From TrEMBL:
Role of this protein: Catalyzes the insertion of molybdate into adenylated molybdopterin with the concomitant release of AMP.
CDD domains per record: MoeA_like
E.C. number: 2.10.1.1
Entry protein name: Molybdopterin molybdenumtransferase
Domain MoaB/Mog residues, every copy: 198-334
GO terms of biological process kind: Mo-molybdopterin cofactor biosynthetic process
Origin superkingdom: Bacteria
Database matches in InterPro entries: MoaB/Mog-like_dom_sf (IPR036425), MoaB/Mog_dom (IPR001453), MoeA-like (IPR038987)
Enzyme superclass (EC): transferase
Catalytic activity: adenylyl-molybdopterin + molybdate = Mo-molybdopterin + AMP + H(+)
């Protein structure tokens, strides 16, 4: 790469895209990398502020921004196990199912102005290896920017963008950074796999018909967004043994997740936490630093051939638009194990502001997850 005056660059080869910005109209490359500069190009280059320009000089120790962006893409989406076939990039790890799938989960956009974007090929839960991402971005002269991890993404969604900061970078520096992803990529998409859900409705007031069950329709609607449906539903009074038996029968019937609604507070009639404990499930946490949703309970029951989450949902999940339930549900539906310290980390960002216009998940609620 060599710097020279634009007026003297006729016949030289551009080594990067030249961007033209017209406010409110466009921002795009007026000339692409590899363009051979003509006499007619000089006024155009000067008009976009290019009094001097970089032209291409071969250097085997350096890598151009376009090629470097491809390396960063592979680190993001494939790790080091990648190859290219028929002009398309495929991840051997994804093709072999190493990350939970049998087909490509993401693909690159065409390189443009030294940038490549990572695009989702399927619906699912986005996982981001935060430590790897931070290490790569700490190298300097290179960057990968992603969406928040543990959020729902759809096919066609933009997941990340990659580029180097200068026009060229030392090959050995980029190679050193790439070793961070030797054991796997920074990004993964876990498909939603839970299809059979059970709802255990609790409370004397519902059981005896004093009020209508308004909780179950809310749960049904939200799990349907992830392709699941209710296959088991029973209503019990505030008898912990009946609730325990109901949970176990639901699991025996094939339920992959169990939601117990109501009875999660500290009143004498609130027996749901005890009932869940008596199933033999491992309690991850009773309580969460989230409002609405402080009385949430998460546990896992070992059914032998599968781990079944049993969740105790507080009443707020019925009448608040967004609660702890909305934060944990995508992970539960993707069978992504939730740990106690992850729930504890929800305190920062765990306060829903109940905005007049809800933009969740495109807001700060639950982003500590």
């Amino acid at each position: 790469m060599k710097l020279m005056k634009t007026t003297e660059a006729v016949g030289q080869v551009l080594c990067h895209d030249i961007t033209q910005i017209i406010p409110g109209v466009k921002k795009d490359a007026v000339f692409r990398k590899g363009h051979i500069i003509t006499k007619e190009d000089i006024p155009v280059l000067l008009s976009v502020g290019k009094d001097t320009i970089y032209i291409w000089e071969n250097d085997e120790t350096m890598m151009h921004e376009n090629e470097a962006a491809e390396v960063l893409y592979r680190m993001s989406a494939c790790g080091t196990n990648s190859n290219e076939t028929d002009g398309e990039r495929h991840c051997e790890a994804a093709e072999s199912g190493a990350f939970g799938g049998t087909a490509s989960k993401m693909h690159p956009s065409p390189v443009k102005e030294g940038k490549i974007e990572v695009i989702a090929d399927c619906d699912g839960l986005l996982k981001v290896d935060s430590e790897k991402l931070k290490k790569v971005n700490s190298f300097g002269e290179m960057m990968i920017a992603t969406r928040h991890g543990n959020t729902t993404v759809k096919k066609g969604d933009k997941l990340a963008g990659t580029r180097i900061i200068p026009l060229v970078i030392k090959k050995d520096k980029l190679e050193a950074a790439s070793h961070i992803c030797d054991d796997g990529p920074i990004l993964d998409i876990k498909p939603f796999v839970v299809r059979k859900a059970a709802i255990i409705t609790t409370g004397n007031e519902v059981f005896h018909g004093r009020i209508q069950d308004a909780f179950t329709p809310v749960i049904e609607k939200k799990i349907a967004e992830f392709g699941a449906q209710m296959m088991f539903h029973e209503v019990f009074d505030d008898d912990d043994q009946k609730i325990t038996d109901g949970c176990l029968r639901a699991i025996e019937a094939g339920a992959e997740i169990v939601f117990c609604t109501g009875g999660m507070s500290v009143d004498p009639d609130d027996k749901t936490p005890l009932a869940i404990k008596n199933t033999g499930a491992r309690i991850v946490s009773y309580g969460s630093p989230v409002l609405p949703g402080a009385m949430f309970l998460l546990s896992y029951y070992d059914a032998g051939d599968r781990l079944v989450p049993i969740c105790g949902l507080p009443g707020c999940a019925m009448y608040n638009k967004r609660t702890i339930f909305d934060i944990v549900l995508p992970r539960l539906m993707a069978c992504d194990m939730i740990l106690a310290d992850e729930l504890a980390g929800l305190g920062e960002g765990g306060l829903c502001l109940n905005c007049d216009v809800c933009t969740f998940p495109n807001c700060g609620f639950g982003k500590g997850f």
